[in-house]
Amino acid sequence: MSSSLRLRPPIRLLVDLVLLGLLIVLVENFGRIWGPPTKRGFFCDDESLMYPYRENTVSPMLLHWLGLYLPLISLVVLESFLSHRKDIAPWGTLWPVYNTVRWFLYGYVFNDLLKGIGKQAIGRLRPHFFAVCSPHFLDGTSCSDASHRGALKYHTDYECQPNLSQATEEMLRDVNVSFPSGHSAMAFYGLVFVALHLRRRRWPLSGSLLSPVLQLACVAVAWFVAISRVMDYKHHWSDVAAGSLLGAGSAFAVSRAAANEELQWRCQNSLANAKQVAAVVDGAADKEGQQMPHDLSLVTCQISN
To answer: Which residue among 183, 197, 236, 294 is the active-site one?
Structure first.
């Protein structure tokens, strides 16, 4: 029995690492696996697609720091600090760190996969579509020609003209993946997860407003990232709303799963410790010819699970 208990944590760790690695490879190459996004048409008088092209206020690198790297580093540092203050076994000391990190990474993959499916399947055009694509129809005409002005015709057969718009290959590739907003989804996921984790840990300075202020800062940064996508004409407001809800919902679900897993782990440890104490007490009672009641924590922990 003792050998199986020693082998169980490394096996679980290995399985989790393999699964997370496979999922990360999947989401990072999702566009290649899925193929080109759905090609949507447009109306020539659609004013929601006539905004100018602007550079990102929040660059992709800054987004990854705000939504992935900094939250992950903060969670590792916080859990390591809190774990080393507890008088528990070596594997138990590292387990809260491991549990938080694995669920955070799983939620990141979960959130990114759902976002990718939405982008590739919907194929919604960005607000700067006309500025980037400069679409021309198969007969050589465009929306600027008199024959297309005011015509309520949905155009699906068109080709982008990068020589006219000076658009790069990357700009053309991203012009029809507007829904949902990936920036909003990633920012809200990472920062809302940290805010919920601070709430669950009641850190720092439990009972004061310090922790709520830190949570507010996390949500405020995520909100700024989201609205910057509308400011930069990268997304429609509904894209940002959907991405924000996706990220926040993923954070709530994964944070809850991590909390439940930790509760189960703590109860199992309490049960194991209670059984050891009961065995020692029962042994001493047998020597004295007495009957001792079992620890009620066994029943309490089972009920709480």
So the answer is: 183
Q: How confident is the model at residue 9 (pLDDT cuts 50, 70, 90)?
A: low
User: 155 catalytic, yes or no?
Assistant: no
Distance (Å, rounded) from C-alpha 245 to C-alpha 116? 15
Question: Do 68 and 183 meet the contact criterion of CB atoms below 8 Å apart?
Answer: no
Dist. CA 189–CA 215, nearest whole Å: 13
66's CB contacts (< 8 A; 6+ apart) are 58, 187, 190, 191, 221, 222, 225
Q: According to the model, what pLDDT value does residue 125 have?
A: 97
Q: Cβ distance 261 to 251 under 8 Å?
A: no
pLDDT, tens digit (0-9, with 9 covering 90-100), for 231-272 = 999 999 999 999 999 999 999 999 999 999 888 877 876 665
Residue (of 235, 41, 228) closest to 127 by Cα position: 235
| Candidate list 64, 155, 197, 235, residue with the active-site label | 235
CA angle 271, 272, 276 (to 5 degrees): 115
> Is 235 noted as a catalytic residue in this protein?
yes
What span, in angstroms and rounded, lies between the C-alpha atoms of 215 and 204?
11
pLDDT tens for 109-151 read 999 999 999 999 999 999 999 999 999 998 889 998 877 777 7
Q: Which amino acid is at 295?
A: D
